[in-house]
Write a structure and sequence with these properties.
Blueprint (H helix, E strand, L loop, with lengths): L1 E3 L5 E3 L1 H39 L12 E4 L20 H7 L3 E4 L6 H27 L7 H4 L2 E8 L4 E9 L5 H6 L3 E3 L7 E4 H13 L5 H12 L5 H29 L6 H4 L3 H4 L12 E8 L4 E2 L18 H5 L4 H8 L29 E11 L4 E8 L5 H15 L3 E4 L3 H9 L4 H6 L3 E3 L2 H4 L4 H7 L14 H9 L3 H4 L4 H21 L1 H30 L3 H19 L3 H27 L19 H34 L11 H36 L6 H28 L12 H4 L6 H7 L13 H51 L5 H27 L31 H7 L2 H8 L4
Parallel strand pairs: 3-4, 5-8, 9-13, 13-14
Antiparallel strand pairs: 1-2, 5-6, 7-8, 9-11, 10-11, 11-12
Length: 912
């Protein structure tokens, strides 16, 4: 150290230098320690916020404001699936300042999503057990004795929003496991700062199941309004993440329960979900077809390509067929084209020209949408059996083939499927790689009732359920009812990720099946009453008609066969008639060309007057132009005549005509008459097509879920179509009296009231004296329809008797099986949390089954019920000792709303 001495000189001491060096080193060490502590604190705070945060850089906290600081160091990515971090959260929560600086997360959205998914997946078994323990009130150890950590979260509930709720965390327990023990679920997997009460998630779950258009954004805005919080998009993302995990927890519990009850997730939907279809009983009547299904495609469930691309998750649905299973049939359409000559093609292609699905080919490529729709299969009672997603295309054949292949593999022989283009899909199946299997298993493909009446009459007689044995009164229009309901989800899935697209549809279909099972006994009751009413009404009418006209039941069947055979004969125009018409058309063109040329050559000389000449140059300009025009017209007419003469001579040579027909020859007259008839047939077909389009537009205008713009567009289309029909009808009425025999003159109200296209077929053909046939008489056709409805009604009674017995046996079997599973689990693992879950499930199913028992008793009480009357006891004692013999069978809506009442009541009892 340098000092000022008494002599005013400078003096340095060794000991002073050592002290100065030590002091400086201590100060540097202290400053370095302060910087390290500050950096460590910033890292901990940033890590906690990143784990509590979402995809954007904004914070997910409801109260604190944070700002970005680009000068901080970037954090390294944690390895996916790493250990669950929670040790630093106490420090962060205790020492956190009101305003903190935050590091920018350099990870992509996909990386952050993968990190979160791996963390959720790792702790899912713990979350399931914690949820079951909270839901069923399982006894737990003293939390204070087991506590290893305390953290705080803000809690969002239905009735309130609470800040800084203290959560006690056990050793090696994830934060969300501790939250679930209190009935809460965090919005992030590792260090949640926001938690949503389970009752709030369950409320939205039940609303969403029954109203698929109710979005997460809507429920989030409702909560913000209730709790006086400004809404922003991050809150929606938080709720969405928590809701996804909640659904995964419920699905995992359902999978565990299904394994205990022996339900195979791969085949249960198609071979177990509907007891009236699948729960066969000994000594029951043999049904042929064994089961009735319906399949169809729908284009409302579209999803834009690239939507939600940052979400790599895959949703595993029990409904959807895998893409690989569908693509194995992608080349079968080409094989159909090359092998079509080997198939018995008796259906006119004209009947499928109006159907978009029938004309779809593999070359159709839609790049705007990743998913363009869905193709599903359902049983006749409405329960969905399987679904295929349509990707980048229309309704291609591969989707139907994959669905049929799944059906044949699981259900086996003697199945019947209704499809709106059955006449085309039958040929596709026959020429595909599963054609031999379908033939061996006696697969039957028919058109459904409503769409069937828009097919060609010949197609109706071969494929419509009204004329096919064993189909009863089933219309096979199940898919249309499903689509009318699932269309409500379209507004939410158009821009959703692939995970949420499938999740939303799966949730909707699951609720749809639950509602259909609830209404299963009502379906059987209504169908039984309908069949009995048809039998009661049609039987006396038909008996009086048969006695009056001396007819038998065989006459109605012979009329149908005769009409089918006749339409098969006239479906293809005879080659000789086509040649004769073409020859007459060429002769008429030759006559016109000859007449035109003869008119020009009938004036032998051109006449001129002196006024046509000039003094020095001969003919004036006007005369010369007239002369040249006449010569040009004469040359053109001659050339056309010679050209047409060559065409006629070539036609005669190719078709072996030895003599040219003259206008008064009988063959010529007959060909002209037939040609006029062809024009009339084309006009009738045009009128037929217009009526078909109007029919579908009317049905679409009244379809539930059709938007205002679409309704307005359809209304205008119907107006235009009506004017077009009137114009075509005027042309028809001008030609109808000129036919041989004359056709009836129609008015507008009559033509739009035709119930089926069979009425048009009678108008088209006059050969073979068609109007003299008994099956062309309107009264006879009406009675024939009543006869076939009567026959189908008796078949429906037979099928219903079998299905009623199956349902009665199933409700007893299910109650007994679930009680046995509970007893078995009590004996093997009395501490299992699934025991309480099985009891809850039993209570729900037992209540629904009791409703079935009561409706079945109503069926048994019908005067003309002909099936077995099995004994039943709908007052079975539930595991909790309560009797479940209350309720009315006349309130299906109340049953549907009360299906999850026990869960909601249980959740509300645990509210904050």
């Amino acid at each position: 150290m340098t000092l000022l001495s008494s002599s005013m000189g400078l003096r340095t001491t060794r000991s002073s230098l050592s002290q100065i060096r030590d002091s400086r080193l201590r100060r540097e060490q202290e400053q370095r320690q302060i910087r390290d502590n500050s950096r460590r604190m910033q890292e901990l705070l940033a890590e906690a916020q990143l784990e509590a945060g979402h995809d954007s850089l904004e914070t997910m906290d409801f109260g604190d404001e944070v700002i970005d600081d680009s000068r901080d160091e970037f954090a390294e990515d944690e390895p996916v699936g790493g250990p669950l971090l929670s040790e630093f959260f106490l420090t962060c929560s205790q020492e956190r300042e009101p305003r903190v600086r935050r590091r920018i997360d350099v990870r992509t959205r996909t990386q952050r999503r993968q990190h979160a998914n791996a963390a959720w997946k790792e702790q899912m078994p713990i979350l399931v057990n914690s949820y079951l323990a909270w839901r069923h009130g399982a006894p737990t150890v003293d939390d204070n004795a087991m506590m290893s950590n305390i953290f705080h979260v803000d809690v969002v509930g239905i009735s309130g929003f609470a800040r800084a709720i203290t959560i006690q965390q056990r050793p090696n327990e994830p934060a969300n496991g501790a939250l679930l023990r209190m009935g809460l679920l965090g919005c992030s997997p590792l260090q949640p700062t926001i938690a949503i009460h389970i009752e709030c998630l369950e409320l939205y779950h039940q609303i969403r199941r029954r109203q698929s258009s109710f979005s997460i954004q809507a429920i989030t805005k409702v909560l913000c309004s209730l709790h006086n919080i400004t809404y922003f998009g991050q809150l929606r993302d938080q709720f969405s993440d928590a809701f996804d995990i909640y659904l995964q927890i419920l699905e995992e519990i359902r999978s565990r329960v299904d394994r205990i009850l022996g339900k195979d997730p791969n085949t249960w939907q198609i071979n177990g979900a509907c007891p009236s279809c699948t729960f066969k009983q000994p000594n029951e009547s043999i049904l042929s077809p064994a089961r009735l299904h319906a399949m169809d495609g729908n284009f409302s469930a579209k999803r834009l390509d690239g939507s939600g691309s940052a979400d790599p998750r895959l949703f595993h649905s029990r409904y959807f067929i895998s893409e690989a299973e569908v693509d194995q049939f992608k080349d079968d359409v080409r094989r159909r084209t090359s092998e079509s000559s080997t198939v018995d093609s008796t259906i006119s292609s004209a009947c499928t020209e109006n159907w978009t699905a029938a004309k779809a080919v593999d070359d159709d490529k839609i790049t705007v949408f990743d998913q363009t729709g869905i193709f599903l299969l359902a049983c006749r009672h409405g329960l969905i059996e399987c679904v295929a997603e349509m990707k980048h295309s229309g309704e291609l054949a591969k989707y139907g083939l994959a669905t049929v292949n799944r059906l044949l593999d699981v259900c086996g022989a003697d199945q019947a499927i209704g499809h709106d283009i059955a006449c085309s899909s039958r040929k596709t199946i026959a020429t595909s790689s599963i054609g031999a299997k379908a033939a061996d298993l006696n697969l039957q493909v028919v058109v459904n009732a409503f769409h069937g009446f828009s097919h060609d009459r010949r197609c109706q007689l071969q494929n419509h359920p009204l004329y096919l044995n064993g189909l009863g009164l089933e219309d096979l229009e199940t898919c249309e009812r499903i689509f009318a309901s699932s269309n409500s989800a379209a507004v939410l899935i158009r821009h959703a990720s692939y995970f949420h697209w499938m999740q939303f549809l799966d949730l909707h279909f699951d609720q749809w099946d639950m509602d259909r099972y609830l209404d299963l006994s009502k379906f059987l009751y209504n169908n039984y009453v309908q069949a009995l009413q048809i039998i009661e009404t049609n039987t006396p009418v038909l008996e009086d008609f048969k006695q009056l006209h001396n007819l038998t039941d065989a006459d109605f069947i012979s009329w149908r066969n005769e009409e089918r055979d006749y339409l098969s004969e006239v479906a293809m125009e005879p080659t000789s008639d086509a040649i004769a018409v073409a020859y007459v058309e060429q002769l008429e063109k030759l006559q016109y060309a000859e007449a035109t040329y003869g008119r020009l050559t009938s004036v032998p000389f051109l006449t001129y007057t002196p006024a046509n000449f000039t003094r020095t140059a001969g003919l004036n300009a006007a005369a010369r132009n007239n002369s040249r025009a006449f010569e040009s017209e004469h040359t053109s007419a001659l050339r056309k005549y010679e050209l047409q003469l060559n065409v006629v001579e070539d036609f005669e040579r190719r078709h072996s005509f030895t003599e040219r027909w003259l206008p008064y020859d009988p063959k010529y007259v007959q060909a002209v008459r037939y040609s006029q008839e062809r024009q009339f047939i084309r006009l009738v077909e045009e009128l037929e097509g217009l009526v078909v389009r109007r029919l579908f537009e009317l049905s679409k205008a009244n379809l539930a879920g059709t938007g205002y713009k679409m309704r307005k567009y359809i209304s205008k289309a119907i107006t235009r179509r009506s004017a077009t029909i009137r114009t075509a009808l005027e042309k028809y009425n001008r030609l109808a009296p000129l036919q041989n025999p004359p056709r009836p003159v129609l008015d507008y109200s009559e033509i739009v009231g035709y119930a089926s296209l069979g009425e048009f077929s009678v108008l088209k053909h006059s050969r073979h004296d068609i109007l003299t046939k008994p099956w062309t008489v309107s009264a006879n056709r009406e009675m024939a329809t009543k006869y076939f409805k009567l026959v189908r009604s008796h078949e429906e009674i037979v099928r219903l008797n079998v299905e009623i017995k199956r349902l009665q046996s199933w409700v007893e079997h299910e109650d007994r099986t679930m009680l046995e599973a509970i007893d078995s689990l009590l004996a093997d693992d009395p501490d299992s949390l699934l025991i309480a879950e099985l009891k809850t499930l039993y209570a729900k199913r037992h209540r629904i089954n009791n409703n079935h028992r009561k409706r079945l008793q109503q069926i048994y009480a019908l005067d003309r019920y002909t099936g077995e009357r099995l004994p039943t006891d709908h007052t079975v004692i539930a595991p909790n000792g309560d009797r479940d013999d209350e309720g009315s069978v006349n309130g299906p809506e109340d049953d549907a709303m009360n299906e999850e009442a026990m869960r909601l009541e249980d959740l509300m009892s645990h509210s904050l």
